[in-house]
């Protein structure tokens, strides 16, 4: 923390911290939780970008680690931006131009990190309200828009288009079409434009449009004819834009959403952790480090409450 303090003293003003970490690892998630707790005690705002493990992960205790880490981070963060490895891997295959992933068409970490970086950049790079001039992206403004309620802190990003990198420069898109894709992806809880019949509701969203012809965007398509005001985008929607394109595409749209899209993954992790805990599987490894079973109980209660709150949206 002394190193952090020295860095902070170099600036006239600091809005908060962006912390990137995994929730399933051992040292990374545990040490990361401790550091974020100390940051929360000393500074105001923090947004955590956390990496959700693959559903078929190889770490035997990843369900425990995710349970304990998420419970801690929820208390020590303004919001948690969740990156789901399974969804990002599917999206990476689209950008790579693969119809499906196989031994002949592998997806490496370089491609996955590129996709994650572009999604994150679409949110934090300079932009402004669509009706105002462009300016630097303010962390506290983002938090005010999508995470105003301390009971709801889980965010994720959906983005379009999904054109392969090799052909992106030859394709042209319309803003109305891209936003319609995003709306359908949110409604069906899909990472790609191959949606199912599942439904998902949102509390609030921020829509980011980056590229040319911003003035041609028709804001009327955001209105919903049924349900909440903006449909899949939630009851509260803020639109930010920038004329500068992102990556190879002439237009890039992304939406930062606080809603039910993470419920299936969260529910699955809690169920796996509870099944293991009911048999006390691997619990001795945590007890050996001084952890008591009451800490597991508190973490289960905390995540059950989060599940209950989001289920009621």
TrEMBL record:
GO terms for cellular component: centriole; cilium; microtubule; nucleus. It is found in: Cell projection, Cilium; Cytoplasm, Cytoskeleton, Microtubule organizing center, Centrosome, Centriole; Nucleus. Keywords: Cell projection, Cilium biogenesis/degradation, GTP-binding, Microtubule, Nucleotide-binding, Nucleus. GO terms for molecular function: GTP binding; structural constituent of cytoskeleton. Its main location: other. The keyword Nucleus applies. GO terms for biological process: cell projection organization; microtubule-based process. Residues 1-91 form the Tubulin/FtsZ GTPase domain. It comes from the Eukaryota. It holds the Pfam family Tubulin. Belongs to the tubulin family. This is Tubulin delta chain. It comes from Octopus sinensis (East Asian common octopus). The gene is LOC115228519.
